[in-house]
Design brief:
alpha/beta, Rossmann fold, three-stranded parallel beta sheet, binds S-adenosylmethionine
């Protein structure tokens, strides 16, 4: 079976690979949906993440709309889907850039540990200066710096946890220049209509649409604001991400905000999923389709058939012909252990 889940295919494709987003799905999943329903005049992705649906829509000349509560997801999708126009002069400026000519630097606060520990001193010095420099430039410059900084740090992501492992890492200044020049070259490859984007919760979704293709957070107790905490800190230059954490769908235990009170995570997840699914149902045109990519979970040792439970919710809400159209068994890392869980693509009709 052709594998249409997972983000690995995107890593081989220009622009799609500007930000490694492990939670992303493959652009092939978007193509699979076109195969089933034909190319629509419009498509929405209310949990857009790194913008795979919207970028593929742009590439195929389709208007689209996306939301996410994470400023990082918004920023990455915006930068990947914008019609950029860089000149030879812009590229020349990057080629001739030298660290000693950058006169300012920023302070980069981080909530979990002093960020300085995550970089060799030379890369840390370069990062503070380059972050100051890109502030006067474009979002593309900043995205190139964020992805380069992660490659040139001691950080590695172990499931939902950030770890520091001292090892030889590439030089940040050189990596940044090379990455930025490559991105500038690639930025004119995908032409098409820019999507409309909003920093907004899917639980408030209200855009009329014939087609929704989306992948909500999985019930895996992974806190995106932690896993992408360094990227968020580099983007916002702010220590405080607890307001973003509060907005995130209940898929992890929000220890900092306690906004779930005493409701167990599983119940909170299905309650919020129901609200989102009701919003999607209301907003879909008559005869329109919802495609929902989800993975089953293991939580506190219990295997949870998230897909079948969501399908029941969809039927309760009024969706018709609810079925799984693609599935695969995948290894998934939960609380440090590897389990096999089903990942599915659910199709539902309004
Ligand atoms: C599985 S990822 C989507 C990945 C996307 N399909 C891609 O290819 O990059 C789920 C996304 O939902 C976002 N999210 C979490 N809670 C949300 C909410 N209440 N409303 C909208 N987006 C939310 C997360 O920030 C994350 O980017």
């Amino acid at each position: 079976m052709q594998h249409i889940f997972g983000y690995k295919d995107n890593l081989k494709k220009p622009v799609y690979n500007w930000f490694p987003y492990k939670e992303g799905f493959s652009y092939k999943l978007v193509d699979y949906v076109w195969e089933r329903v034909g190319k629509p005049p419009f498509i929405s992705d209310p949990f857009m993440g790194s913008g795979t649906t919207l970028l593929r829509a742009k590439e195929l000349g389709i208007n689209s709309y996306g939301t996410d509560v994470s400023p990082l997801a918004y920023f990455v999708t915006y930068t990947k889907t914008k019609n950029w126009n860089f000149t030879e002069k812009d590229k020349e400026e990057v080629k001739t850039l030298s660290l000693k000519n950058i006169e300012g630097e920023v302070n980069i606060p981080f909530e979990l540990f002093p960020l300085e520990r995550a970089f060799p001193p030379r890369n840390w010095q370069a990062l503070k200066k380059l972050r100051w420099w890109v502030e006067q430039k474009t979002e593309l410059h900043l995205l190139a710096l964020i992805t380069s900084a992660m490659k040139c740090s001691f950080i590695y992501k172990d499931g939902g946890v950030l770890k520091i492992r001292k090892r030889p890492v590439p030089d940040l200044f050189k990596t940044f220049k090379r990455t930025l020049l490559r991105m500038m070259d690639e930025s004119s490859l995908i032409k098409g209509p820019e999507p409309e984007l909003e920093l907004k919760s899917a639980l408030e979704y209200n855009k009329k649409t014939p087609l929704i293709l989306t992948s909500p957070p999985y019930l895996n107790n992974i806190d995106y604001t932690k896993v992408y905490g360094v990227e968020l800190a580099l983007l916002t230059l702010s220590r405080n991400v607890s307001n973003i954490r509060g907005e995130m769908m209940a898929s992890f235990i929000k220890r900092k905000t306690q906004s779930q009170g005493s409701i167990p995570i599983k119940e909170a997840y299905f309650q919020e999923s129901k609200i989102a699914l009701e919003r999607f149902y209301e907003s879909l045109e008559e005869g329109g389709f919802l495609y929902y990519n989800i993975s089953n979970s293991i939580l506190n040792g219990e295997y949870i058939e998230v897909d079948t439970m969501l399908m029941e919710l969809m039927e309760e809400i009024g969706f018709k012909d609810v079925k799984i159209v693609k599935k695969i068994l995948r290894n998934t890392k939960i609380d440090g252990k590897i389990y096999r869980a089903r990942e599915s693509l659910i199709e539902a009709k309004r």
